[in-house]
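Quick one, T. Sequence first:
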Amino acid sequence: MNPANWSWPGLKQFAHWQCSWTVCLPVRSDQRGRHRQLCIAIGFLLFNSLSINALSSNIGPTVYQDQIWEEDIHSVRLHTDQDPFGSPVWELESENPPLILRFDDMAGGYKPYTVRLIPCRRDWTASDLFEAQAMEGIGQELIQQHRSSFNTLDQYTHYSHPIPSEVLRPKVSGNFAVVVYADQDLQEIVLTRRLLVLENRVSVSALVRRAYATSEQAEAQQLDLELGIGKLLINQPAMDLSFQVMQNGDWSSLRKGPGFPTFLAPQQWTYRGQPELVFLGNNEYRAVDLRTVRAPGRRISKIIRTVDGYQAWVENDQTLATKPHLSQRDLNGRSLIQNFEQRTPYTESEYVWTTFALEPKLNESWSKVYLQGDFGQAACDESMLMEWQEESGLYVKSLYLKQGFYDYRYRTGEALCESISIEGSHSDTENDYEILVYYHPPAGMAYDRLVGYTKVNSMGQKSR
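Structure tokens:
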């Protein structure tokens, strides 16, 4: 066979799939019909392979967090309609209702927002799973549920989407990043949220008590727990199974559990008095009530309506670090979209420019102060940095908040952003703790399975 008679069209790649994107093998010049058929078949296979691997190839953050990337996006939520305070956890092969992703676009009108699920490792970096391995269907879907706001001063469009849906449905457990793009090209990210997909294989029981074995027993809480391993194949306990704990749904508090249990039995691992499971209790959250715009709500000193909309001022806050603990019911850092004037809070609630102010004492000063709450951004994000006003002697921050009830607190620090210096810490503080148990298959699969989960309250109350 003479190589001069071979045809080499080569490889041609486009940004989007086109039928001319082909890879062709050499054939004789007089076999054009078969040549075209072979090119189309291989091109189709390559397209599928690349689309399957597209989950980890698109541009995105190195570590996925709860974050808003577009200034017109507000009031991001991911929970079931039955439990507005619930954590973003969905169990595989269960009859549980889906979570609902909600957000508002203050620009109004309609945009073809696309939501995508990206499988992640336990550290929230993108895993190496192919789309066909992680999803039952395709890995992205156009958000079609949208409604314009009704009878509000500022017009906005409210978007909602079930997760999982019939199209967008994980088939493996683990961490997933919920990523919303501005269009179907998947080039511009507008928001990211974290999702936990659970396969309930490990039973988790936990108890929170005062940390007696530490010098900070008046400020700290000790978490003890037991893991029922069941039928999981465990060859190397320190490598095959691990768990993480976070406080009050705050991802910045997430920490890795100890590598070895206190007591190790074939089917039960017990962790008691481990220093890695000692948490500062912090303090109860502060709160602000914006559920009505007709009169000042809880801790609102003034609320007015102007030509530009509603404005509210929260009463000046003082530091609590040196004050005794005051027990009060809170939402443990969460928020609730609600108003007292209308029946449909998601589309009939007003937005209010809300100004928070922290008033330090004469001997108090911090280089940076951040406002933390369920505002859609990661803890200590620069968008939450408060401004120091020399004339008033206040740290001030204004946020554009939808009517509702919001928990919040102040944090400070440079490299280590913490709340203790301003809020104080007490062992009697009521907190929620969530335990996430990950299994790393011995076969070396490139992902971490979430095989156990529970939420426990430090006061034995029903967790929110």
